Amino acid sequence: MRGPHNIWRLIRTGATLERTGAMSVVLEAMDAPPRLRAVARILGRPFRFLGDEGDPALPPATRALTALGPAYIKFGQILSTRPDVVGDDLARQLRVLQDKLAPFPRSEALAAVSAELEADPDTLFSEFSEPVAAASIAQVHHARVAETGQEVAVKVLRPGIEQAFRRDIDAFYLIASVIETLHPASRRLRPREVVEHFENTVLGELDLRMEASAAAEFAANTKADKGFRVPGVHWFLSGRRVMTLDWAEGIPANDLPSIDAMQHDRAALGDRVLELFLNHALRDGYFHADMHQGNLKVSPEGDIIALDFGIMGRIDDYTRRVYAEIIYGFIRKDYRRVAEVHFEAGYVPADRDVDEFARALRAVGEPIFGMDASRISMGRLLTYLFEVTERFGMETRTELILLQRTMVVVEGVSRSLNPRINIWNTAQPVVETYIRDNLGPKAFARDLARTARVLSRFGPRLPHLAEDLLRESQKDRRDQAQEQGRREEPRRRGLWFAFGAASALLAGWVMTLL
């Protein structure tokens, strides 16, 4: 339940950060200004004793986030892919959050399997291991199907995870409300809508039936993608709190020494991760929206294997074209066209100056080109972009939040594999192919054909629709005439009254003459 009672959660958050030593680590890594550091200290130190100590064996930031709960862990997972923003040391600490959290007992997992699948686990699986990976929402067990002997991965939700997420998200709503109240200028960023979007996304991740469906759709879309694999779903061994997939043998994408030992080309892998994401987002409009290193493996053959399909993103045809044109405009340094696309899509208010916006975009884009990724500070770039959006009155587009967030995560993964990657050079062939196939004459003809097919389905109903439309039009005209008559009735009564009074006066005058 949302309300003031969540103030306790906020106080405990700050106290936990202070007590675990994470406050100073985070502020230092983020290069926070002195005023913010002072405020954090003033608010955190008096309540330090209320904070959770966490696991002393963990580094401070990881220790604090794991103590605070699953929503905070999700936030830490994103930051772990951005060493250019939070620094190498903090990013290394936060990578523990991806798949190495404390597991819950195997006995509880077996009880969940029995309750969900309504069968004795021993009759379903001939082998069922201790947890092999534990994340913020669920953990995975290596098992073998009793009937076929096939190796599988069984994912089981953490006990009580739904309640824990609800508690964290409620606190985030309070934070958003406080921000909007104390800083009205932030309302253009729609902080409450951002939290609502995050809530809907995470709640979908808590139903493993939806994840199984997402995995099956994603596998169908990407079956022709070279060097990419999605494990198959075992539907009869899956439910709301349990999901079973084919076992995927491979090296975690964050185990760089093992990848090097297998003599895989890390630069090529980094490029492929970015190319795959862009293809899935632009070509399919359906993409993996949680592509951190803990959800990616590298097979012995060098294929990239995707895991964990709880958070998937979907964007419509129009948004894909807008997104592609913006990226393509940056690649070509056509900042005027990028600005026009923002205006055409309604991302920037129509009363702003398109040339001024184009000039601001040039200041963002020019420093990127001709430089390798290791020399670009994404933190400074994001700061300047925020200043630009504030200046031109852009509002947060909630439909693009997941796409933007995933782009940040994917770039971070690609960077970890290939620190010298140039995201624009890697993206260019993918975007150019999409532009050629979707924004030219061929795409126009395809859109017309699609429109014709839709209209053809209504062919038998067109005469009836036309008759209904004609009757509705006639009814509207009658209603308008009646409404006009009602509006003119007082005027007519006034005219008749005036005419009657004049007639009476005229009659009286005539009578006086007789």
Write structural notes for this entry.
The protein has 514 residues and is α+β, with helices and mostly antiparallel strands. It is built from 23 helices and ten strands. Helix 15 (266-284) runs parallel beside helix 21 (423-438), helix 16 crosses helix 21 (423-438) and helix 18 (354-365) packs antiparallel against helix 19. The longest helix has 52 residues, at 462-513. It starts with 6 loop residues before the first helix and ends with a helix. It comes from Tropicimonas omnivorans. This is 2-polyprenylphenol 6-hydroxylase. Keywords: Cell inner membrane, Cell membrane, Membrane, Transmembrane, Transmembrane helix, Ubiquinone biosynthesis. Residues 97-342 form the ABC1 atypical kinase-like domain.
